[in-house]
Write a structure and sequence with these properties.
By secondary structure, this protein is α/β, with parallel strands linked by helices. The chain contains six helices and five strands. The N and C termini lie close together (7 Å).
Amino acid sequence: MITKNEIKKISKTETRTVEIVRKGICEATKLTEDIRNRKPSILVVEDEKVCAKLLVRSLRKYGLDVDCSYNGKEALDLVADDESKYSMVLTDISMPVMDGREMIAKLRQLAYNNSIIAITGDALSEDVQAVMHVGANEVLGAWKACQIYVLHN
């Protein structure tokens, strides 16, 4: 059974992640006249559906438009269809079909210039540096908290 302290810790991690994303959107999004009244749109790329749904729900609480894909290939196709649609891409690193590192590199090759934030539970320093090297703006390493929460419920 999950304790109150574990719930508080998960809640703090979720809130910190959402706040970092929200801050990044405010800094990264330069809205033009014709889209000023639209809400910023974020693409979440996460293969673990429970974690994806938790992150999407958390971001929507802040009034953001959020789309979700479950692998890098799907995400790349969504961004390629309309490069200006997403103010930010939030992605896991380890995924099937196309991992986050390859997807980030290909997004940058498409000239996607908005923020890309990588989220991982396996934040080894060499992985973080490799993801930053291919074009991620930031790497958040405490995403496995949602998995702990799910396993205990």
